[in-house]
Specification:
Layout lengths: L17 H4 L15 H5 L2 H13 L3 H13 L7 H13 L3 H13 L7 H13 L3 H13 L7 H13 L3 H13 L8 H13 L3 H13 L7 H13 L7 H10 L3 H21 L5
Length: 283
């Protein structure tokens, strides 16, 4: 039996469009506390004290982290009102994540009664300062009509801006939009391939798998089992899991000659090695 796969992402249908774009709970989207060696070896209480001292001196990043500490109860009793206050101070210091977190506070009513107009204004400011996550949030709001007039056009504009700002999620989502002709868009396999490639280059596992599907099934181009094998191997080594993955790999290997299989395997290893080198943190 032949294994079947399909292009997937946040927009498998227009009604599933918001699954990827919807903002997670605030606690799940916070930056980690400052990562100095000292903070990694001291108690949560001492870390809180140090961060608070820096925040009170006007350090915007420390203000943001202090808000996270209050929200999650790190080194201090959980206090949503104080968390929101420090997110607001971080926003006033022009920290994009500060505006974003403040927007989520207004959106879900954390530390306040909730105010969608203020939430929208905060997300817009964060997006203007270049935060891709805020651009995706605005896209989600326009797609759903939550807090704004529903507009697929405006949603796609913000999603495109997020992709241009190197959001891998946004790029993969746009790939699915254009591959399937969703959200009032004309099906455009060339544009879809371009977005999937961008997302894959940024390490997006779903986009890597989507490229494999394109080459395997010949979507918008000639079928290329060798190239499909390469991308499926990259996905597999990156942690992608699917019930039919082993069957797909067996089928692709069976369609190729031994030297072609070896070449695809070597190409996958080179891609992974190049990706690791490009994304190796500076010492």
């Amino acid at each position: 039996m032949k294994a079947k796969t399909k292009l997937t992402g946040a927009l498998a249908s227009a009604f599933v469009a918001l699954s990827l774009l919807a903002t997670p709970a605030l606690a799940q989207s916070q930056p980690q506390a400052q990562q100095s060696q000292q903070q990694r070896t001291i108690s949560a209480e001492d870390a809180f004290t140090l961060v608070k001292q820096n925040a009170e001196k006007g350090d915007g990043a420390a203000m943001l982290t202090l808000g996270t500490f209050y929200e999650q109860g790190i080194g201090v009793s959980r206090n949503f009102v104080s968390a929101m206050e420090w997110y607001k101070k971080a926003a006033d210091a022009n920290v994009p994540e500060g505006y974003y977190n403040l927007g989520v506070c207004y959106e879900i009513g954390m530390g306040n009664a909730g105010d969608m107009k203020k939430a929208l204004a905060s997300f817009q400011k964060s997006a203007q300062l270049g935060l891709p996550q805020a651009m995706q949030k605005l896209a989600s709001m326009y797609f759903s009509g939550e807090g704004v007039g529903q507009s697929n056009k405006r949603g796609l504009e913000w999603l495109s801006k997020a992709a241009d700002a190197n959001s891998a999620d946004a790029a993969n989502t746009l790939g699915v939009v254009y591959s399937q002709g969703l959200l009032d868009q004309t099906k455009d396999e060339k544009k879809a391939f371009s977005y999937f490639t961008k997302a894959a280059d940024l390490g997006h596992l779903e986009a890597i798998k989507n490229l494999a599907v394109i080459h395997k099934d010949g979507l918008g181009r000639k079928k290329d089992p060798a190239e499909a094998l390469k991308w499926y191997l990259i996905a597999q080594k990156g942690g992608y899991q699917a019930a039919d993955l082993d069957l797909i790999l067996t089928e692709l290997r069976g369609a190729l000659k031994a030297p072609e299989v070896k070449k695809a395997e070597e190409a996958a290893d080179r891609w992974i090695e190049d990706f690791r080198k490009k994304n190796q943190p500076a010492e």
